[in-house]
Design brief:
Protein name: EAL domain-containing protein
Organism: Duganella radicis
Structural class: alpha/beta
Largest sheet: 8 strands, mixed, barrel
CATH superfamily of the largest domain: EAL domain
InterPro entries: Biofilm_reg_signaling, EAL_dom, EAL_sf, GGDEF_dom, Nucleotide_cyclase, PAS, PAS-like_dom_sf, PAS_4
Catalytic activity: 3',3'-c-di-GMP + H2O = 5'-phosphoguanylyl(3'->5')guanosine + H(+)
CATH class of the largest domain: Alpha Beta
GO molecular function: cyclic-guanylate-specific phosphodiesterase activity
Bound molecules: ligand C2E
Number of helices: 23
Length: 557
């Protein structure tokens, strides 16, 4: 009786096992020692797209001949030979599936569990794309660039083969966003990305760094790295020559490109990007649509500039500024007024020239506080002069920076200072530069007219050095043209200096303005400007700028 019971039990077990294997979510394949297929569940049928009855008893490699010698083949043989389980993920090319495999060797042969993980793989690939590629352009993003750059730097340090980072910023990109909307700006960025990609080798990285900034990473440049990088940068510039087609409208765009080379030197990712970025700013400063290479002097300049900015902030708090006044004379030598010139008494560096710190103050908007202080000081002195008949008729000229002038509340600010100090508006002359007047002419005229109503006058400073347009000069309520000193100095040399002075004098007179010659240093220059018909002059010949105490002596004399 034992035999039939045993075989009945075995049959029951086999049926239970089959039921289990049929119900699990994995595909299951059982192989004998000679790779013959002994069992296959329904999931395995569906996944491999073969019919059980066609393959049972047949050799696995006969059924799937394309897998012979491939990764499945090697993995299963290894499992059997070493009698250890193997787990792996593999792409099954004939059906374009990603599979996850677990194969267990046993006395009977090999049992393989596998499943389709294509969806998970696709999700992972998508997540990877989102994490490392820019959505708009499809280029590697900053994250991936940093990773590749780190790798490139350490490789180059080891093998000595140089590479380069090209930092690319589009010139005036903001204008397309502002005038045609962000979606058009996006279209331009996509086309720029394509052109940059087309201009370099497939193995180079073109990444979107952010906004309108792109970075190209060139590796393995060989011995003449600088020349090669220069050629590639020129090619990138050229890629912008043709107009872009932004929804049927031709749009011209240019890039500014900064290049930093790397090689054996130990330099961090941050440093190399900073260098390329600095060089890019240099390219912008040189007129845009340009390539500039990093050189160490740039770094020195930038840190000097940063130091100056910090010192300037401190100077405003510590009140390290003072005003000097340069006397202005009528052409006959009579004192007509003074120009207030700011001075910075730096605790360590001594006197710092305004030519050095005014531009920094303008870039950082610190000029707003500084300019206001200058105006209050100068108007304070003007108010004190009013009580003395020897000084009551003198004019006070004050320089106004574009940043100050273009503030919407500029007029109110000047009015407030006049009121606060009690200075006479008709003795105050504000000196504006030509470039300041070029910007937003209509609003400039309105502001000037409002102050003119109070009696405040205006002069154009350094006339001739900017790009004044004669078409609007006559519309501005100006009372004085100040001829830049470079023309006065050139006038007595060979060349066109004298002719230029003559032309400016003629122009000013036609427009009913008084003419002041700047930087008169010698009696010959004075005779010249007198002969040309200038009304006033200013310069070391008459007097240098003086601190207030010395100015008082000068006035008494
Ligand atoms: N070589 C030579 N130089 C002469 C002669 N006569 C006058 N100068 C210099 O020429 C500059 C005249 O001022 P600017 O053209 O308005 O040029 C000024 C002005 O643009 C700016 N600046 C000065 N003070 C202020 C201020 O309070 N506010 C603003 N926004 N800018 C200022 O800084 C510039 C330079 O000022 P400074 O160094 O004081 O330089 C002054 C003055 O010292 C001369 O005969 N020979």
């Amino acid at each position: 009786m034992q035999g039939p019971i045993k075989s009945h039990t075995q049959a029951l077990r086999a049926a239970a096992l089959t039921a289990t294997l049929e119900s699990i979510s994995d595909a299951v394949l059982m192989l004998g020692h000679d790779w013959e297929i002994r069992y296959m569940n329904g999931n395995a049928e569906r996944l491999t797209k073969v019919k059980r009855e066609d393959v049972l008893g047949r050799n696995l490699w006969e059924v799937f001949p394309e897998s012979v010698g491939g990764p499945y083949y090697r993995a299963y043989h290894k499992a059997v030979e070493t009698n250890t389980a193997v787990t792996f993920e593999e792409h099954y090319a004939p059906l374009d599936l990603w599979t996850e495999i677990r194969a267990y060797p046993s006395e009977e042969g090999l049992t393989i569990y596998f499943r389709d993980i294509s969806e998970r793989r696709a999700r992972e690939a998508e997540n990877h794309r989102l994490a490392f590629y820019d959505k708009l352009t499809g280029l590697p993003n900053r994250q991936l660039l940093l990773d590749r750059l780190g790798h490139a730097l350490s490789l180059s340090r080891r093998n000595g083969r140089p590479g380069a980072v090209l930092f690319i910023d589009l010139d005036h990109f903001k204008s397309i966003n502002d005038t045609r909307g962000h979606d058009k700006g996006d279209l331009l960025l996509q086309q720029v990305a394509d052109r940059l990609n087309d201009a370099v080798r497939g193995c180079d990285t073109v990444a979107r760094f952010g906004g309108d900034e792109f970075v190209v990473l060139l590796e393995e440049l060989g011995t003449d790295a600088a020349a090669l990088a220069r050629d590639i940068a020129a090619k990138l510039l050229q890629a912008f020559h043709a107009p872009f087609d932004v929804e049927g409208v031709e749009h011209y765009s240019t890039p500014s490109i900064g290049v930093a080379l790397f090689g054996r030197e130990n330099v961090s990712i941050d440093d190399i990007l900073k260098r390329a970025d600095l060089a890019m700013y240099q390219a912008k400063a040189a007129g845009r649509n340009n390539v500039s290479f990093f050189d160490p002097a740039m770094e020195a300049r930038v840190s000097a500039r940063a130091e100056l900015e910090t010192d300037l902030r401190r100077a405003l708090v510590n009140k390290e500024f003072e005003l000097h006044y340069q006397p202005l004379a009528s052409i006959g030598g009579e004192l007509s007024g003074v120009e207030a010139l700011v001075r910075w008494r730096h605790p360590q560096r001594g006197m710092v020239s305004p030519a050095e710190f005014i531009p920094v103050a303008e870039e950082t908007n610190m000029i707003l506080r500084l300019g206001c202080w200058v105006l209050i000081e100068a108007c304070g002195l003007l108010a004190r002069w009013a009580g003395d008949e020897r000084t009551a008729a003198l004019d006070m000229s004050v320089n106004v920076s574009a940043v100050q002038f273009h503030r919407p509340d500029f007029v109110e600010q000047v009015m407030a200072v006049l009121k606060q100090t009690g200075a006479r508006p008709d003795r105050l002359r504000l000196e504006l530069t030509e470039s300041l007047l070029l910007n937003d002419v209509e609003s400039a005229i309105q502001k000037m007219l409002r102050l003119r109503e109070l009696g405040v006058r205006f002069a154009v400073d350094d006339f001739g050095t900017g790009y004044s347009s004669l078409s609007y000069l006559h519309r501005l309520p100006l009372s004085q043209l100040k001829i830049d000193r470079s023309f006065i100095w050139d006038a007595l040399k060979e060349g066109h200096g004298a002719a230029i002075v003559r032309m400016i004098v003629g122009l000013g007179k036609t427009l009913g303005m008084s003419i002041l010659a700047e930087g008169v240093e010698t009696p010959e220059q004075l005779s010249f400007v007198m002969a040309e018909g200038c009304h006033y002059y200013q310069g070391y010949l008459y007097s240098k700028p003086l601190p207030e105490s010395q100015l008082a002596d000068f006035l008494h004399r």
